[in-house]
Here is the input.
Amino acid sequence: MSKYYTDTPFNIWLIFDCDNGYRSGINSIEFSKKRFGYKLNSLSKKTVDAVFDSCDISLFDYDMLKLDESKKSFNLDKFLISTKKGEIFSYSDLAFKVFKYKRYARAVASMLHVNPYALFVPCHRVVAKNGIGGYAKGVELKKQILEWEGVDIKEKGW
Here is the structure.
């Protein structure tokens, strides 16, 4: 496996984990305070730069992600990928939209906590009914990402 890094507008690195270079697909994407691996370059770098320049993750090439259709989280991932910047959902509303049961909200939160595609499967768009909710890399980063996408977090009281 190879790791590639790029900077982000959030003062944290984004690390891409790939087999045989990024052309064979991306196994995972994670935020990291430490830069490691090879510098992301070529077409992938242009794609990621376009995402950051436009504040629009829908410009990402989702065919590069190795989404596992056998996992329960597959439908959740596909739904989140289809959402638009600035949209937010509560855990229970998302559980109902994807699994038809609001009581699956905790299961949704657990699946999102281990989301292997940070930022690009936008789990940051899922919030608690009574506040911003959690985020694996910290609530402050979640706030930065939501603001970057145009959500007025101050208006929401977060």
